[in-house]
């Protein structure tokens, strides 16, 4: 983590991926994040994948370095306590991240009565308040009908990466900091709503796909072929599968040189009056001619031979691996990657944890904190943030309003 957001305090009431990842990004840049969990754990407390002792590796990964307070959400006393924590005084405080409904007890309007300059970043499903998760939003915007093999007969294909959750979390963190900067200048708080559906459809609009479908119709499935340029998976003589991409002119000329195809491709260009070097779109249009040439050249050589030739010629390529293979075979990803540190979790197991994905070259990178046990910091936060005495905290425990660490 870094310390550039030192002095910022964020309170999080959230579950699943998007909102917790928003607060995680802020924590890894130095903000203090107080996560409020329901007594007994929230809906994501035990989500798969799980560790050997049953802890949720999913939950642990998204909540590294945060402070966890366990509060009874269903009691009036518990809800009042949540409001006090969210609206606690402090120049860098009054920042709230949630995915709870906009009109519930955690509504911005209600809480802003206690702190007028409150900033709320609210992750939603649909902008009208309808529920949604990454996978239902992805289905709604048509991506599964663009995904999968060319021969797939009308069946949608879901991808396994929750892309809209991850993008929404990152965007919500950006938007919250933008609002905090505005508050510094004006003293005004505000609510930021970031629906998954808006993040998804805006992203497709940003990369031209809305304009594309309105002018040309839905994009067909293309398997592993890269749309609009030259790129596809190819199999080597020793049955290794490589992804090869040539977007720039330099990548294209490097690929031809590595495979010894410059002359034959030059003759095709002369015969057809085109230049593949100058126009990546032509490489896509003529893929039926170019792909078999590359396919045959790759199939005649072993992966080790090709990797040397590709690297020497600046080819953009990558080998297909399982995640287990990637972790053991590609040290740049984890073993030699400075964003990772070996950290023991709350159960004593040690494994590499990622810190901030960005490297701030002129700043010192710290070791990421482990995930807390849910409710681990209840007493600490109530004492330090709200100034409660041990007697007050004890009464809250006795009444069931708060709880300590969840086993």
Please, could you describe this protein's structure?
This protein folds into two domains: 9-204 and 337-403, Crotonobetainyl-coa:carnitine coa-transferase, domain 1 (Rossmann fold, 3-Layer(aba) Sandwich); 241-319, no CATH class. Helices cover 39% and strands 15% of the residues. The chain is built from 16 helices and twelve strands. It has helices spanning 18-28, 57-62, 76-86, 108-111, 134-140, 163-186, 196-206, 209-216, 249-259, 262-272, 280-285, 287-299, 303-312, 323-329, 378-386, 390-399, and strands spanning 9-13, 32-38, 67-71, 95-98, 119-124, 190-195, 230-235, 241-246, 316-319, 340-344, 350-354, 402-403. The strands form three sheets. Strands 6-5-4-1-2-3-12 form a seven-stranded mixed sheet, sandwiched between helices. The protein has a three-stranded antiparallel sheet with strand order 7-8-9. A hairpin with a 5-residue loop joins strand 10 (340-344) and strand 11 (350-354). The model has no long low-confidence stretch (mean pLDDT 97).
List the defining traits of the structure above:
407 residues, alpha/beta, seven-stranded mixed sheet, three-stranded antiparallel sheet, 16 helices, 12 strands
Quick structural summary:
Helices cover 39% and strands 15% of the residues.
Q: How would you spell out the order of helices and strands?
A: EHEHEHEHEHHEHHEEHHHHHEHEEHHE
Mean pLDDT: 97
Shape: elongated
Largest sheet: 7 strands, mixed
| Total DSSP helices | 16
